[in-house]
Amino acid sequence: MNNDSVNGSPGPGASAGDGGSPGWGASAGDGGSSGWGACAGDGGSPAEIVVVGGGLAGLTAAILAARAGHTVTLHEGRRRLGGRATTDTRDGFRFNQGPHALYRGGPAEAVLAELGITPKGVTPPLAGAMADAGGRLERLIVGPGSLITSRLLGSGDKLALVRVLTRLGRLDPASVAGLTVAQWLDGVTDREGTRRVLEALVRLSSYTNAPGRLSAEVAVTQLRASLHHGVVYLDGGWGRLVRRLAEMATAVGVRMVRGDRLGELPDAPAVIVAVGSPRAAAALTGHPYPDGIAADVSVLDLGLAGRPSHDFVLGVDVPGVDTRDDTRPTYLSNHGVAGDMAPPGHTPVSVAR
Questions:
Q1: Any bridge partners for residue 223, and if so which?
Q2: pTM recorded for the entire structure
């Protein structure tokens, strides 16, 4: 993936350690309560709240507000709830909207736990993960075992990679807040091979391929989460989580209005805007919001008869090899390791670049 892309939702992730178990440095985690309680209204008294947007953020906000005693109405412009977290079923296969994964130990898992939801799923095993290095497949270095056996890097680059990843567990992301990823990498390694692997891991954990623009603080936060805690592929797809949230919203009294695309901000004491883009928010509020740099990703979801020869492949740039016009995928993952994703003997695979 050589075209710069900055925005996008982290999805595939990777759990460190061969076989999906943590293998590098110390663990770090996000946490905290959502902080709902005294919400809108003078003195924290119950208020009428309108939530615009029926994706994961909107549904979660509506539930938390209703639990805090507020009267909540949720508006979703489409007939279907979920936004980018919807799951399509075709010929027995369940396809998410491209590769998705839930980060363990992150804010999303903390909020879901507060709601009493523990999504069922599987940490993708990475024991056989491969790197596509300019068309050459080598073992991806994801832990001590693959570090020894992989021919992706020479011994000097391997030692440099170990040093960076070990220090990562002790690195405060805020300490690199003023740097881009490129500047951060300049300061932690002078080994080109090591740098290319780190760039690939940043791409994987952030869905971002712009080392000269992406904040090192953001990249380090995501990289720590993926390496130290791992991710989960959800059983039955993300649509199952959406249904659970929708059922919970109904149970706590949220009134949901679907297929009603609002053209302006609703007249209510409090409004939560949880729509999909700054442009959509600006259309409601009348205030412009910066779009940021455009992000492009090509995704292909496949339903296979049988199983692919490799369950996980990540593209790694190779020094001296120009891959800008390369059509090989940057990311391939077997999402059938989660339960109830395909007919018996079949496999759903996500490919992205």
A1: none
A2: 0.83
Residue 181 domain flag: no
For residues 192 and 200, is the Cβ–Cβ distance under 8 A?
no
Asked if residue 73 belongs to a domain, the reply is yes
Domain membership of residue 67 (yes or no) is: yes
- Give the residue carrying structure tokens 């011994």: 155
CA of 215: how far to CAs of 105, 180, 183, 220, in Å?
Answer: 21, 5, 10, 9
Domains: count for the chain: 1
Could you tell me the residue range of the domain that residue 256 belongs to? Answer: 46-119+234-285
Instruction: Tell me how far apart the alpha carbons of residues 92 and 299 are, in angstroms, rounded to a whole number.
Output: 20
The rounded radius of gyration (Å) of the Cα atoms in the chain is 21
Bridge partners for 121 per DSSP: 234
Q: For the segment 236-273, what is each residue's pLDDT rounded down to a tens digit?
A: 999 999 999 999 999 999 999 999 889 899 999 999 99
3-state secondary structure of 291: coil
Tell how strand 121-122 and strand 231-234 pair up: antiparallel
CA 173 to chain CA centroid, Å, is 18
